[in-house]
Amino acid sequence: MKQVFLICAVALAPFSASAQENEPPFGLGDLAPLADNFRDFFDAFTEDMMPLMKQLSEKMSDLNAFEAPEVLPNGDIIIRRKPKVEEAPDVEPKVNPDGSIDL
């Protein structure tokens, strides 16, 4: 959290200096350092958030094993597991060792 405040303070420093000199708040040349500061901020932010996003995506894949929640009249919420799907039998007929096919 301290990093966020530090980055914001560094990013806004050119604006406070130009306001004291009674110049326009920013020109086209002043936006390049600001853009660089924000790029650094978002690069650090994405590095910090990447492990959390991976964990979240793993948890989201686990949600496919559950039905939609049901709210009972007394206010209880039930979330049931989906029944396990059994594999379908083979569709193709099997060939016997003598070359015949059982249907």
TrEMBL record:
Compositionally skewed regions (Basic and acidic residues) per UniProt: 84-95
Signal peptide interval: 1-19
Record's keyword annotation contains Signal: yes
Region described as Disordered: 83-103
Keywords, sorted A to Z: Signal
Domain of life: Bacteria
Name of the protein in question: AAA+ family ATPase
Protein species of origin: Litoreibacter meonggei
